[in-house]
Amino acid sequence: MRGRGTGWRIAHRFEREQRADTDDGWPGEDEATAADEAGAGSPPPRGPRTVVRIEQAGRILSRNDSPDVPFESAVNPYRGCEHGCIYCYARPTHSYLNLSPGLDFETQLVAKANAAERLRAELARPGYRPSPINIGSATDAYQPIERTHRLTRALLEVLDETCHPATVVTKSGGIVRDLNLLARMAARQQLIVFVSVTSLDARLSARLEPRAAAPARRLATIRALADAGVWVGVNVAPIIPFVNEPEIEHILEAAAEAGARSAHWTVVRLPWEVAPLFRDWLQIHVPDRADRVMARIREMRGGQDYNADFASRMKGQGTWATLLRQRVEKGAARVGLVRQTPVLDVSAFVPPSRPGPARPVDLQHDLF
């Protein structure tokens, strides 16, 4: 399905009913319509359009107590992600919306329209203790719909106004539209951006992450951020054995040349419905390597497709995981990328003023 990570609307794990397709010999409605519209020699039809539902969020900050995640709180202005990365560990979150972690995750999106207002209210709560807020832990905050909804921009405006530190993770070039805010926050040592570079191969990237920025655009984004004074880390993630793993050193070198200052990495994670979706992707795109890829992943996951143990879920375990770590560390050191990022300043935080009750309208006063 062109432009989509998967065409499979896989059933989510909470569904009580199971459905099976049967071939009755007659073309289905979609198939017949597509055939009529396409005509002989035409390219295959595009997949379903992206649909965005508007939501009024109750709370916007999610707390984290996982020891392997380097932030205490996160904000995600959207649910789902149009980038369609087949390996995305956040796909199973769509199950809670009674939607498929497959095709629905990248086509049925939710925009939290009041995200900035809710963030302002939570930062103004008595006793709030500031710590860096991560933007984009379960969705890319700069996915294509940000151009229209601009929720991430609104969140950054609140954080900039209150001098609150933040980190951003993205694989989109759209972040450069907010350079004025980002540069101001970075000058106060209150911002770090991580740009994910999965591959330097544009064709592979288009299959793994069909609606994300091309590799060259991501490197240009690193350069633009670095030139604006923003600390940029390259996120070599996820590393997939025999798929993008051979590129580790090349990605690190290209990112350093573009202006990245630190390097971070994770091994591919396949929780819940992501595992069958990823296995299906392997059979479609790299069938000659599919078994080898899954065998190596299971070797790093204690013989399973996935192991959620905090001690190993990000980096894996065993000999191969150790070799990956050594390659990343040596490759990063060779091109001058460090492991540690600066400690962000929380001391300048100024709580936002709590909105008071609306005053009565005085037309005569308002005229002057």
Amino- and carboxy-terminal Cα gap? 59 Å
Share of β-strand residues? 5-15%
On the 0 to 100 scale, the average pLDDT is 90
Whole-number radius of gyration?
A: 22 Å
CATH overall fold name: TIM Barrel
Shape-level CATH architecture = Alpha-Beta Barrel
- What's the CATH superfamily, by name? Aldolase class I
Kindly provide the name of the CATH class: Alpha Beta
Inertia-based shape: globular
Helix content: 25-40%
- Work out the count of structural domains: 1
Strand count, sense and closure of the main sheet? 7 strands, mixed
Please provide the count of β strands: 10
Strands of the widest sheet, in order across it, are 2-3-6-7-8-9-10
Count of helices?
A: 13
Uncertain stretches of 5 or more adjacent residues:
28-38, 356-368
Q: Which class of secondary structure composition applies to the elements?
A: alpha/beta
Sketch the topology as an H/E string, one letter per element: HEEEEHEHEHHEHEHHEHEHHHH
In short:
It comes from Sphaerotilus mobilis. By secondary structure, the protein is an alpha/beta fold. It has one domain (48-339): Aldolase class I (TIM Barrel, Alpha-Beta Barrel), CATH 3.20.20.70.
Q: Layout of helices and strands, plus pairs?
A:
Blueprint: H1 29-38, E1 51-55, E2 61-63, E3 73-75, E4 78-79, H2 103-107, E5 108-112, H3 115-123, E6 133-135, H4 146-149, H5 151-161, E7 166-170, H6 179-187, E8 191-196, H7 202-208, H8 215-227, E9 231-239, H9 248-258, E10 262-267, H10 274-285, H11 290-300, H12 319-334, H13 363-367
Helix pairs in contact: 3-5, 9-12
